Amino acid sequence: MDEAELEHCRALLGVGSAVTIEELERVFMKRNFALIKGKSGAADEPNPALDAQRQALRTAYERLAAHLRAQPPGADPAAGREKPMPAPKTLLTPPVLALRDPADDEFFLLRFDDWKVNVFVPPLLLAFVWLVNLSPLAFFLRGFHVWMHEFGHATAAWLCGFRATPLPFGWTPVEPVYSPFVYWGLLLLFVILFLAGLKERKVWPMLAAVGLAGLQYYMTWRMSELRQEFWWSAFGGVGGEFYLSTLFMLFFWVQLPDKFRWGACR
Length: 266
Hints:
Blueprint: H1 3-13, H2 21-40, H3 48-70, H4 115-134, H5 142-159, E1 162-164, E2 174-178, H6 180-199, H7 203-222, H8 225-250, H9 262-265
Antiparallel strand pairs: 1-2
Helix pairs in contact: 1-3, 2-3, 5-8, 6-7
């Protein structure tokens, strides 16, 4: 690689000819991190310009790093002369300041990676709800009990491919006729959940989507009509009070994709 190409790579990275491999790596990581943060505000939309900048930055880093590694120990990267003694090296450009992580500005209780929240908040919430149930204010929580019961009927019916409408006053009408709209609509939601988890590299949404799709297939196509009716009419209500409430509590520790805004919903 000739001197013109070296200077071009140094200009892209903002380093001087006396830069070391350690300094080069730090500068590359900081600049690449800055580009990634600049793209995070519009992560749902492709940005060819930023992708091209990141690729050019990586290419310049790899070429310059390969050139520095090829130099013999103690050699001057700029002129190829032996140095009489090691001297401190400085960058020709001002140092790149690390960008502030947006997670630092997030509300304390919405942070998934804070061990204090994950350890202490769930038992404190359970203790708070238990105290409320012992107080005259317990009637404020009756609605949640009814909603879990009715949604238990509805979720069982949906997984069996039936239309169901959970109503907040304690009634869930179910149409005992197979509905393609319910089956394929629910399956589409599972696919969206899987793709969102794949895009953001979160494994739990992907596993949940595959598991729910398999459960839906079994309950719709493999269960007998008698067992289906038992699930959504007899077991679904009381079962929903158990499995839906349990899932809601477990989801406190599961970070769903950012599209679902689960940090606030949890």
